[in-house]
Amino acid sequence: MPSASRVLVVEDDDTVREVIRRYLGDAGYGVLEVADGRAGLWWAVEHAPDAVVLDLMLPGMDGLQVCRELRARRPQLPIVVLTALGEEEDRVRGLQLGADDYVVKPFSPRELVLRIGSVLRRSAPEAASVGPVVDGGLVVDRSGQRAHLDGVPLALTGREFDLLAFLVAHPGRAFTRTELLAEVWGWEYGDQSTVTVHVRRLREKLEIDPNRPRRIATIWGTGYRYDPADRP
């Protein structure tokens, strides 16, 4: 429930931060606020919020550095980055560093609240009755929100785990990027490069040679397909 969730807002613009605080508060979230990157990193590590809203243009330590450090220290912490209109390179870089979602400024506060709700729902453990999926050396435990490859834990972000779990649950079926945005992100529309970046990160963690993937195949003109380990 939102009332049980705390969101850390790392934003140096006082007006933007106040708007975010008000809308998140009205939605039932507890809100922590800081105005620079180093303080944001410290609060996120020491006070364990349930999600972070992270501006990319910050004093002290920029948002990309904060995102990188947070991913190293708290791999499954949901992170939503704020980017300026037209800064596609920064947005893609943020996703590559492990952000779960992004919102482009100027943004609708209601949209941001919906995005926060989405990443929090997807980071919540599922019922214990959901059994793990085993495919060769890959084990995906949806109820425990964890995955192992050949006995080694995979350091996945929440959204990376969601994408992997969805694909593994539908072996041999090709999905378009639009379908994956809807099924995994809960978006009716959005930047399809979000899917591309997350698939690339998954391949780097799953594949022996990410440039010649055997598990997550690219289906040209369509999207992506998960191929089980025992395929011919």
Q: Top keywords for this entry?
A:
about 230 residues; about 40% helix; Arc Repressor Mutant, subunit A; alpha/beta; single chain; five-stranded parallel β-sheet; Rossmann fold
Tally of helical segments: 8
At the third CATH level, what is the topology name of the largest domain? Rossmann fold
Number of discrete domains? 2
- Please state the structural category: alpha/beta
Shape category: globular
Total beta strand runs: 12
Largest sheet descriptor: 5 strands, parallel
Strand content: 15-25%
Please provide a written account of the structure:
By secondary structure, this protein is an alpha/beta fold. The protein has two domains: 2-123, Rossmann fold, CATH 3.40.50.2300; 133-226, Orthogonal Bundle (Arc Repressor Mutant, subunit A). It is built from eight helices and twelve strands. The strands form three sheets. Strands 2-1-3-4-5 form a five-stranded parallel beta sheet, sandwiched between helices. The radius of gyration is 18 Å and the shape is globular. The relative contact order is 0.11.
Write the layout of secondary structure elements.
Blueprint: E1 6-10, H1 14-26, E2 30-34, H2 37-46, E3 51-55, H3 63-73, E4 79-84, H4 88-96, E5 101-105, H5 109-123, E6 133-135, E7 138-141, E8 146-149, E9 152-153, H6 158-168, E10 174-176, H7 177-185, H8 193-206, E11 216-219, E12 223-226
Parallel strand pairs: 1-2, 1-3, 3-4, 4-5
Antiparallel strand pairs: 6-7, 7-8, 8-9, 10-12, 11-12
Helix pairs in contact: 1-5, 2-3, 6-7, 6-8
